[in-house]
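COMPLEX REQUEST
Ligand: flavin-adenine dinucleotide
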Amino acid sequence: MTRTEWDLIVVGGGPGGASAATVAAAAGLSTLLLERGGRLRHKPCGGILPEITGELIEDVFDSPLPPEVLSEPAELSLRYTPPSGEANGGRVRNFRLINVKRDEFDQWLRDRASLAGAEVLHEARVIEVNATNCFNVTYHHEGEDRQAGARCLVGADGVHSLVRRMLNPDAPSPKLLVGQRLVSVSEEMPSDFHCVFAETLSPFYAYTVPKGGMLKIGSGMTEEARTDLMPSLDRFSDWLESNGVAEIGEAALQEGWAIPFGEQLLDASGALLVGDAAGLCNPLSGEGIRLALESGLLAAEAIVESGYESPVQNYRKAAAGMVRMVADLHRVVLAADDESRERFIVAELSR
Ligand SMILES: Cc1cc2nc3c(=O)[nH]c(=O)nc-3n(C[C@H](O)[C@H](O)[C@H](O)COP(=O)(O)OP(=O)(O)OC[C@H]3O[C@@H](n4cnc5c(N)ncnc54)[C@H](O)[C@@H]3O)c2cc1C
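STATUS: Structure written out below.
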């Protein structure tokens, strides 16, 4: 089996992996990024970023977001409907969101990693990882199994992370399911990211996002209630119609995926975990792209600062605030009821 040697191997080429690979390669580390999907691989996502993410992207990737990764409309406002109904909802003042085409966005990030000097392989599926005196990674690429070795490993392979499972099989990784449909709508497209909080629709929230002339509708569900995921989208379609928000037409796409929901884990057998693989996703909003970009950056910086000998302590220290924030929000979500959701939205709308 052919084998190559690297300073760092990054498994997964989403925002977390692209960020880690870009920062490490730019600092001079020989870096291999292995991505299971092809170019423009699809990731189920709303593609919504808080406006401040633009600055983080510019810092990490040394470029502003190019127009071709932006969806139409490129800028959205945030609209909330509380459990008591539309009459008490509204737009959050002075709050802007960036609307991206997720597949194109991720490809641009991986291309920036290449430009920074990382070797980026698409259709390279990692099938085995082990940690001895270095990390050994076996991956399938161009019809054959190959091996790569490195002193450092970053697991950025998402919510079902193989790196996390192989290097710490006992670590639980609870999830929250999210279903989405891309639908046509007959009248004028709403220009906001609309979050609707109602126990009858979802124990979390349901949302709409305009995407280039279509509307994405989504809803979250516990793992135990998985069979209710798609029915919750039917209920939400009815809700949108009966509240006069939109007349829902044909679905061009229906998909379900997951986000991590509790149990943050920054490292496993010396490998650093970032983004969804580390459980770093906002459990209240489902926002994970920014946390993936930021944890990828912190992981790479920890590796560079430690002379890539033992980056774990540096990374734990740097990412502690992020872990605390996600854990605190997780407790808030677990304790939430319609009364606290109502209070949260009243506070958001009056700020
Ligand atoms: C339906 C839905 C909607 C969402 N909407 C939003 C949103 O609007 N805004 C937001 O900020 N967040 C959103 N999120 C969360 C967000 O998508 C994730 O938090 C984010 O993608 C995490 O980035 P990541 O790099 O950690 O992982 P991912 O983006 O999942 O990237 C992991 C990569 O690893 C690759 N991979 C996996 N296994 C292997 C392997 N064995 N070998 C090689 N490669 C592998 C995958 O192909 C993938 O490219 C949403 C999530 C869902 C499910």
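REMARKS: The helical segments are 15-26, 53-61, 102-115, 162-167, 229-242, 289-305, 312-335, 338-349. The mean pLDDT is 96.
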